[in-house]
Amino acid sequence: MTEKPMLEISHYSKTYGGGKKAVDDVSLAVMPGDIYGFIGHNGAGKSTTIRAVVGVLDFTEGDIFIDGHSVKDEPMACKRITAYIPDNPDLYENLTGIQYLNFVADVFGIGAAEREERIRRFAGLFEITKDLGDLISAYSHGMKQKLAIISALIHEPRLLVLDEPFVGLDPKAAFTLKTVMHELCQGGTAIFFSTHVLDVAEKLCDKVAIIKHGRIIASGTMAALTEGHSLEQTFLEADGDE
Amino acid sequence: MNKNIVLLRTLLLSTSGWNIYRHTTDKKKRRRIAGNAVGKLCLYAMLMAFCVAICVGYGKFGMITAAPVMCALTVSLLAFVFTLFKTNGYLFNFKEYDMLMSLPFEARTVAGCKFLYMVVKSLPWYLSISVAMLVGYGVYARPPVGVYPLWLVLSLFLPVIPMLLAAFLGFVIARISAGFKKTNIVQTVLTLVFVIGCFSLRFVIEDMFRNDRIQATLELASRVTGGAARVYLPAGWFSDAITRLDIPAMLLLTGVSAALFIAVFAIVGRSYRQINSALKAHAASRSYKMTAQKRHSAEAAIAFKEFRRFTGSTAYMVNGGIGMILAALVGLITLVIGPDRIIKTVTQGAPVDAVMLWPAIPFIVYFFIGMVATTACSPSLEGKNYWIVQSLPIEKATLYRGKMLFNLALTVPFMAFSTLCLCVAARVPVAETTLYLLQGLALCAFSTAWGCVCGIRHMRLDWENEIEVIKQGAAVAIYMLPNMFVVMGLTVLAVVLGLRMDRRLLALLFTLVATLLAALSYRRVLILSKRR
Question: For the whole model, what pTM was predicted?
Answer without folding.
Answer: 0.76
